[in-house]
Amino acid sequence: MLSRVLLAPVLIGGFPLVSYALLKTGVLPTHWLGLPDGALAVGLFMGLVARGSPAIRLSLAILAMAACLAGLSLAPQMTVGLLPVLVNLLLARLFQMTLQPGAEPLISRIARIARQEPAGLPAELADYTRRLTLAWTVFFLLLALNSLLLAAFASMNTILMFANTLNVLFMAIFFVVENIYRLYRYQAYPHTPLLRLMATLAQHGWRLPETASAPGVAAGPERPH
Q1: Chain segment 129-182, per-residue pLDDT in tens
Q2: How confident is the model over 196-202, as a mean pLDDT?
Q3: Does the pLDDT of residue 40 top 80, yes or no?
Q4: Which helix (H) or strand (E) holds 173?
Q5: pLDDT given for residue 135 in this prediction
Q6: Which sequence spans correspond to the domains of the chain?
Q7: Which CA distances in Å does 99 have to 62, 104, 160?
């Protein structure tokens, strides 16, 4: 489990640096640096959109990946430009779909499981995590809009600089600033250690398990131990 917990920060921190180095050195043909976005888009598509039997889903994944490879080979500028738009729209959809009536907001669910509160979060935290889920939705929509503008007006190098490096930096800044705000604003509540949060995500991924019934809301703030 520890290796899975540590893998995510290594990939998140290392990929932008490796991509930047490859972009600057020109070791690989530039357009192939769009392949990670293609793989991420296919993964998100399979998780959020694709339906059917395992055989059908596998066939769809192969077709989607083949289309991505063909696009990068035959129309690299257009494909490199549109892949980040698709990725960010799918990420926005990932958060938005959990804001629908009757659903538990994604960040609320992550917080509830990481904090080991099956009955539900305190009302104040439940409201905050719902608004934070909405904030991440808007954040990814803004990244999608920026990616669309870059696809229309920027060079391939600039598109890849944003898609593989700067967008990850923006997400890290958003995460750190939110974490600092939450620690200050909600001092009355105990906060989940980062390693436990990462362990929760490593164990469950983003498809976190639902409870048997809709979680209730705990009354009153908990005091830090």
Answers
A1: 999 999 999 999 999 999 999 999 999 999 999 999 999 999 999 999 998 999
A2: 69
A3: yes
A4: helix 167-185
A5: 98
A6: 2-204
A7: 31, 7, 31
8: closest CA among 207, 198, 200?
198
Closest alpha carbon to 133 in 96, 160, 167, 101? 96
With CA atoms as reference, report the closest residue to 208 among 119, 87, 98.
98
DSSP-derived letter for residue 164 is: I
Q: What is the dihedral sign for C-alpha 192, 195, 198, 204?
A: negative
pTM of the full structure: 0.85
The residue with tokens 């939110």 is: 178
Angle 95-101-106 from CA coordinates, rounded to 5°: 25
Burial of 88 (0-12, 13-18, 19+ CB in 10 A): buried
**Both tokens of residue 116?**
């080991």
Q: Which amino acid is at 127?
A: D
* pLDDT tens digit sequence for 206-219: 554 444 334 444 33
Helices (H) then strands (E): counts for the chain: 9, 0
